[in-house]
Design goal:
single chain; alpha+beta; Molybdenum Cofactor Biosythetic Enzyme, Chain A; Molybdopterin biosynthesis moea protein, domain 2; 3 domains; six-stranded mixed β-sheet; three-stranded antiparallel β-sheet
């Protein structure tokens, strides 16, 4: 195949470019079973490790929390009606083990008790007598069964992103593992004859640059809940660039990002390769920097060409790639 200098066919406003890619991806995922199989599916994750993950389906509690009426204070459990005669200056004497029972915070209430009097509000005579000068009211200082969580109630809806505080609710409700969306796999392909692999800790010569864009984009993708794989820099050779794309698709990548090669230079081959393997949706956005951004669909999956200029690469990711990843990851924008 012969390659020639690219020409931007149509510069799209950013909102239009984003909608075009999202619509194309939605059309394919809704209409083709083989394409749906390529998109992130369901897996299970231990509840204690689920922070940041997105629920594949709604989660309901298996247990109530508390599982019984429990003391909310250290003190004495009582039947509230037994204390109604207590008055300031006219203490009521209760008998430990008969009409009052010593409890610590969190302990189940003894049978027939419905209130707790704080330890600070009683006088203990050391002979089993406990004096109180104020009546207790029903459910005073008591955590009632199901106060926090009721068995079978909805804890979190589908597509909820798990927060640190949610882990406590999951475990308290008896949820040991949660159904979550698989984390999208993003494959990043640095390109260019002049780029050096940072992993080799190179000393760049004249006209050479240490490849770094892939790591910036990888970090941004991980912040969106993605798994990221980076291949070693690929030189500006069409056959090798195509092989890197096909290998990424064969490896199950949900999205592929080429770093550089998306502009209109004589050695910018990304557009030609994506055009031969899929459908070009966007080539050129109304943003400076970021104009050479490229988006295509190959085998039902989004493939992007991020410009080589670092700031342009960031703009491309933030404005064009991020909405697509959020769609794949079932995250809100």
């Amino acid at each position: 195949m012969s390659f020639k200098r690219n020409v931007y066919l149509k510069i799209l406003p950013l909102p239009e470019a984003v909608v075009k890619v999202l619509d194309a991806l939605a059309d394919r995922s809704a209409g083709q079973d083989d394409v749906r199989a390529l998109l992130p599916g369901r897996e299970f994750c231990p509840a204690q490790e689920a922070v940041g993950r997105v629920l594949h389906e709604a989660v309901h509690a298996r247990y109530s929390s508390p599982t019984c009426h429990a003391a909310a204070m250290d003190g004495f459990a009582v039947r509230a009606a037994d204390t109604f005669a207590a008055r300031e200056g006219e203490p009521l004497l209760l008998r430990e083990g008969e009409t009052c029972f010593a409890v610590n915070t969190g302990q189940p209430l003894p049978a027939n008790c419905d209130a707790v009097i704080m330890i600070e509000h009683v006088a203990v005579d050391g002979r089993g007598g406990v004096s109180v000068e104020a009546p207790a009211f029903p459910w005073q200082h008591v955590r009632r069964i199901g106060e926090d969580i009721v068995a079978t109630e909805l804890l979190f809806p589908r597509n909820h992103q798990i927060r640190p505080c949610d882990v406590g609710a999951l475990l308290s409700g008896g949820i040991w593992e949660v159904p979550v969306w698989e984390q999208p796999l993003v494959r990043i392909i640095p390109t260019g004859d002049e780029v050096l692999d940072f992993e080799q800790r190179p000393d760049p010569g004249r006209g050479q640059v240490v490849e770094s864009n892939s790591q910036v984009l990888a970090a941004m993708a991980r912040e969106l809940g993605c798994r990221v794989e980076r291949v070693k820099p690929v030189p500006d050779q069409p056959d090798r660039l195509r092989a890197a794309l096909l290998d990424s698709l064969d490896a199950g990548a949900h999205a592929v990002i080429f770093c550089a090669g998306s502009s209109a230079g004589s050695k910018d081959y990304t557009r030609s390769i994506l055009e031969s393997e899929g459908e070009i949706l966007v080539h050129g956005i109304a943003a400076m920097p970021g104009k050479p951004s490229l988006a295509a669909i190959c085998r039902g999956r989004p493939v992007f060409g991020a410009p080589g200029y670092p700031v342009s690469s960031l703009i491309c990711f933030e404005e064009l790639i991020t909405p697509v990843i959020c769609l794949l990851a079932h995250r809100p924008l």
